[in-house]
Amino acid sequence: MPCRTSTAPLTIAIWVLLSVVLDAGLAWGQIEPDSGPGGRRWMPMPLFPPGAAVIFLVGDPLRGGAYMYVKFPPAYAPPLHSHTATERIYVNRGTLLLERPQSETVRKPMGEYFVLKAGTVHTTVCAGPEDCFCYVSIDRALDVIPFRHDIPF
Question: Is residue 152 part of a domain?
Fold first, then answer.
């Protein structure tokens, strides 16, 4: 019989390590608007409305699994959507509001880790007043499937 163990502690350890390595010595006032962790440059987040920015850390999210650092400005709220990939999100700075149809809005403050399984219809709103910074991993290529309000669950 196969042994099943939780990978959550390992995943959290990877996020903490990435946070320490990439953000070493950076404090709020020290980050220039166009520079990110390790001096890397932000670029527009593919497939998302204008405003979201991304730094690809490991892998190519348009071809397969990847790790990335994502930035949302205050009040940024993409339309409801889903992905074929499972997302693992660690809120490094700011507060996200996780909204799903027919569910209560859930606050995800700095330090929170959560998983959105593939196919989960959602949006994540940056609660502000500052930008939201998140480490995101996906287990397959990134896509954005718009939620159609005319199709019932």
Answer: no
